[in-house]
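Morning!

As promised:
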Amino acid sequence: MTMTQRAVTVLLEDRLITFNRAVGLIRRRNLPVRSIAVGPTVTPGVSRLTIMIHSDEATADRAVQHLQKVVGVREAAAFPARDGVTRELALVKVRAAGDRYGELLDVVQLYHASVVDDNPDATIVELTGSEAFVLSCIRALERFEILEVARSGAVALEAGSEAGARVPANI
Amino acid sequence: MGELLTGSQILCRALLEEGVDLLWGYPGGAIMPFYHALPDYPGLRHVLVRHEQAAAHAADGYARASGRPGVCVATSGPGATNLVTGIATAHMDSTPLVAITGQVPRAMIGRDAFQETDIIGITQPITKHSRLVEDVEELAEAVREVFAVAQEGRPGPVLLDVPKDVQNAKAAWDDGRSDRAPADRAPAIGRPAGASHGPDLPFSNAMALVEAARLIARAERPLIMAGHGIILSDAYAELRELAERTGTPVITTLLGISAFPESHPLHLGMPGMHGEVHVNRAIQQADLIIGIGLRFDDRVTGNLAAFARGAKVIHIELDASEIGKNVPVAVGLVGDARALLRALLDGVEPRHCNGWRAEIESFVRPRFESFKGGLSPDGILGSLEECTAGRCTIVSDVGQHQMWVAKLFRYQRPNTHITSGGLGTMGFAVPAAMGVALARPGEPVWAISGDGGFQMNMQEIATMVQERIPVKMAIFNNGYLGMVRQWQQFFHGRRYSATPIWSPDYVALAQAYGIPGYRVERAEQVDGVVRAALAHDGPALVEFLIEQEANVFPMIPPGASLSEPIESETVAV
C-alpha cells in the first residue's frame, strides 16, 4: 500500500476517440492524476499516453487492467517513477529588466536550461527535467517577472530492457 | 467488386450476417433510410416499441434469455438519449446489447443540427465500445466489430452511430467478407490477455489452479458464491459438480439466482443487504470463499472492512480488472468460468463439509415476514410456482417486490430469473419481459413490478398487443414506492416524503388495451387468477393489492456489516 509517484503508460490508436475513451476511463475511475502527456510513437498510427499518478501499486495495476479493456488500446503498463526516467519540458516566458538580463542568463546556465526565443520585452526559457527540477527552476525564475508557463506533463520510460508499454512487433 | 448497395442495405445484410432476426426500435428523421430498406429484409423482424428506453430493455431481456446479442434501433437526438438508461442497465449487468442510432448527416455534425446529440460522447462511460461510422465503406466492418466486442470476453453493450448520409451512400457489398473470422480484425484490441471465452487457459492460471485446489482441500468452512458469470458461461453442470464433490454450500447472488437449483440441499440462498441471516452469517464465519463470476458488489458485501474477515478468497472471473477490486484475493483465476471450473475440478478431491453444514443449519432462523395475513408476496410467488410447475421465467423490476421475487420463488431451471441488478432500473421488467418472451416462445414469462416501476413503462402494453407478445404482467400494488418507504421508515423517522403513489384502475387500463385484467385482493383468489392469466393466449395483467407497509426482512443497513442485520419491525423502529 505504498503511496508513491507512478507512471501509467499506454500505447493506443492515435485517434481522438480512443484518447477520449482512455482519459474518460481515468476520470471515471477517479484516479489521482498529476499529469497527462500524449504524443506520437515510432509506429505510425500509434500514440503514447503517459499518466502520472500518486497511488499505491494496486490502484495503478487496476488502472492498467481497465485501460487494457478499452477498444483501441494496444498496451498498458505501470511502474513506480523511481524505477525509470521521468522527464517533462517547460517553456517559461520571462521579462527581465535590461539591467537584470545578465542575471537571467546566469540562472539559465545554472539550470542547464536554454533561451529559445529572445525579444526585447520577453525571453522564452526552455527547461527539461524531473518534475522537481522543473519546479525548482521555475521558482528560481520567479525573481524575474514570469509572464507565462507552458509545461508538457511528464513522459516516462522504465529502466532496463523489460519494456512495459512496447509496441508489439506485429503492428 | 461486389454488389453496389446503400449503407442501409449494407446495415441490414450485415445484421443478418450476424445472425440477427429481431430488432426493437422506433423510427425518426436520421434513421429513416434504414427503415426504408428494412421491409426488403423480411428476415429482420422489427418490433415497434412505444418509447426507446423500452427498446433497449427489451433487447437486453432478449439477450439475457437467449445468450445472443439483443439489438435496438433509434433515431438521433432524443431517440438516442432515450436509450441511455437501457444501455447503462446492460452495461452494469454485462449484457451483449447492440444499439444502432441514426445520426445527422456528416456535414452537420458539430453544428447543433436539429436532433443532433453526441451520443458517442454521452454513452462512452456505459458502453464497452462505440463507433461513429464516418464512411459507408467501413460500415460492414463496423457492424462486425461491434458485434464481436459485445460478445467476446465479458459481454457488454456497444453503440453504432450511423449518419443519415452514410445510410444513403453506396458501397460495394462483398459476401466474401462474411467468411472472414473475427480473429482477422486488428490484433487483440481491447481484449484483455487471458480473457478468451474458450477452453484455452492462460499459462499463469496453472499455478493458481494448484493453489486453489490446495485451499479447497484444506478449508474447514468453505462457501461458493456464484454470480452472473455462471449463467453467462453456461457453467451450471460444473458449478454443481464442484459443490457436490466437495460438499460446499452454494450462495447465489441476485444475478446468480437460478445458476444453481434451489431445491438442492447445498443451496443456501442470497447474500447481502436482503440476504437471509444464515447466509450472511455463513459468509462471516467462512474460512474460504470461492467466488465465481461475481464482482463482490457493495450490496453483497456490506461494509467491506468487516466482510468475511476470516476467509481466504478464490476469485474466478472473466474480467481481470474485477479481481481484487473490492475484496483482496488469495487466488485470482482469470477466464471463462466454465473452462476454469473444469480445469479446477481436475485437481479437486472428493470431500465433505458435514460439520460446517450442520453449523450453518443451526444459523437458520424462522423467516420473519411482516405480512399481516391476507395477500402476501409469499403466497403469490408460491402460487406462481405451483400453477406453472416451476416452468416459467420471472422478470422482476426494482424494489421490495424484487427482493421477494428473488427470495420466495424456488428457481430450479437455469437462467429463469432476470432482473436489473447493478443499475437497479425501475421500469425494466415490463419491456425486458417482452424480449424474454420472444426469446422463449412457448414458455410463460411473468413481468413482476411494483406499482411504481410498472407505471414507468406501462405504455409497452400497446407493443405487446400490436406484436402479440404474451407477457403476463403482475403488479404488487402497495400504494407506495415501497423500498424507499421502507428506508424512510427505518432511517428517516417514518417521514414518507414523496413515496405515496396513486395508481390508475389497472383492470380498466387492461380493458382499454383490450387484454384481460384482474384485481386480486384476497389470498383465496390468487390461484384462480394466476391460472386464468396463464390460460389466456396473449398478454394479461394481474394487480395484487398487497399490504401497504410490509417490509423486506432481514435488512443490512447501508454501510453496516453483514453481521448487523435488522430482522424484524421491533428492531427496526
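The interface with chain A takes residues 120-121, 124-125, 128-129, 132, 149, 153, 186-190, 192-193, 319-321, 324-325 of chain B (CB under 8 Å).

Hope this helps with the figure draft.
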